[in-house]
Amino acid sequence: MKFALRGAAVFDGYITHQKCALLTQGDCIVSIVPENNIPEDYKSIHLDGGTIAPGFIDLQVNGGGGVLLNNAPTVETLNTMAAGHAKFGVTRILPTVISDKPKVALNAIESAKQCDKQHSGIIGIHVEGPFFNEEKAGVHQSEKLRVLAESDWSWIEQLAALPSILTLAPEKIDNKDIQRIDELGIRVCAGHTNATYSQVEEAHKHGLSGFTHLFNAMSQLQGREPGVVGAALSLSQTWAGLIADGIHAHPASMLAAIKSKGYEHIFLVSDSMANIGTDKKTFELYGEMIEERDGRLVNSKGNLAGSAISLLDAVKYCINTLQLPAEQALAMASRVPATFMKLNNRYGTFKPGFTSDICWLDNDWNCAGVWRAGQKI
Q1: For the range 145-154, what are the long-range contacts, defined as Cβ-Cβ under 8 Å and sequence gap of 24 or more?
Q2: pTM above the 0.90 mark?
Q3: 157 and 229 co-located in one domain
Q4: What is the rounded CA–CA span in Å between residue 163 and residue 361?
Q5: 227 and 275 in one domain?
Q6: Which keywords are on file for this protein (predicted)?
Q7: Which helix (H) or strand (E) holds 221?
């Protein structure tokens, strides 16, 4: 089917076009043309203002739609998560399994491999843990943390079949193993780590390229020891995920990071849990009840357990609270994550031949419509 979306501003991933229409055919973007130049064989769909943008891509999604990946690492869970996030303009997700038994990670990977990559919204998998520093475990259970064993390569090598992220503590793994993981094509990120600046710098030389939920569960920037945060801000050829909710990081800290690295190297993440896309205020993780209190998801110890936001909430926070240009905030939720995952030849921008993943946002930046691979969902 050929259709043209008109009546809204068109953000193509880089700049915003006014009085233009977005042309799509099947599951591909065709072009952006003036509204008065829509070909006759295209069905014209009039939108009532707002902005159409490339569909959002969330690289850290623990759950959604009432389910959590660790609790049931199945295809059904993944599809439910993707559907829960689609309500907020998110057309592609990287489901995230946190520190657990090796079988849980392997089942999550196998389930992701079974999903229809074009139409399910599942683009790969993010394994967060278990090679973490116990001092920065956060909500991850200490008994689930461990050092890398030879047997772990059986599931790590399965990650190579998918776009994937493995988050680890650089000080808890040998650099030659980081290099081996990177050479498999897996994106290596630092997280839940108490590493020194020099340890991160060495890991970066061996393939570490990203930082998971910047500022959280990592050694902080100090005058004599820059720590993981200092490494994230100063290593220019790295990217960092940012939970923009005003809870996981102070607005001034977020602005400092964006100014230091440039928004082109900061991608927004939700770090969302089971409650996203539902009215739920509680859910179970590791057999323990997690509840939402004043916008925070916490366990019985009061530790943060993911976030209560969607990726759209993060975009709106960047626009309304951080006062970033809308084009930057939208890019940080679409083009930048696609670039980090080396999927920017397919997603994140409205270029001819790219997948027609589209979100329509109204004038208040609420989601008014979503198309994944050209199909309205």
Answers
A1: 145/99, 147/172, 147/173, 148/172, 148/173, 148/174, 148/177, 151/102, 152/102, 154/102, 154/106
A2: yes
A3: yes
A4: 28
A5: yes
A6: Carbohydrate metabolism, Hydrolase, Metal-binding
A7: none
Q: Count other C-beta atoms under 10 Å from residue 35's C-beta.
A: 16
Is 245 designated active site?
Answer: no
User: What range defines the domain where residue 229 resides?
Assistant: 56-340
Q: Which helix (H) or strand (E) holds 153?
A: helix 153-159
Task: Examine residue 142 and state whether it is found in any structural domain, yes or no.
Answer: yes
CATH of the domain at 45: 2.30.40.10
Q: What is the mean pLDDT of residues 261-273?
A: 97
Helix, strand or coil, per DSSP, at residue 65: coil
In terms of domains, do 214 and 311 share one?
A: yes
Residues 222 and 242 in one domain: yes
Query: Is 275 among the domain residues?
Result: yes
Residues 252 and 183 grouped into a single domain? yes
Q: Strand runs (DSSP E) across 76-196, as ranges?
A: 90-98, 125-128, 164-168, 187-190
The encoded tokens of residue 156 equal 């790590």
Total domains in the fold of the chain = 2
Active-site residue identified among 271, 279, 362, 364: 271
Q: If you average pLDDT over every residue of the chain, what do you get? A: 96
Instruction: Give mean pLDDT, residues 150-171.
Output: 96
How many whole angstroms separate alpha carbon 141 and alpha carbon 309? 23
Let me know if residue 348 belongs to a domain: no
Q: At a CB cut-off of 8 Å and minimum separation 6, what does 357 contact?
A: 54, 55, 91, 92, 347, 371, 372, 373
- Residue 144, domain member (yes or no): yes
Contact 9, 52 (CB under 8 A): yes
What lies within 8 Å, CB to CB, of 363 at 6+ separation is 49, 50
pLDDT band (50, 70, 90) for residue 214: very high
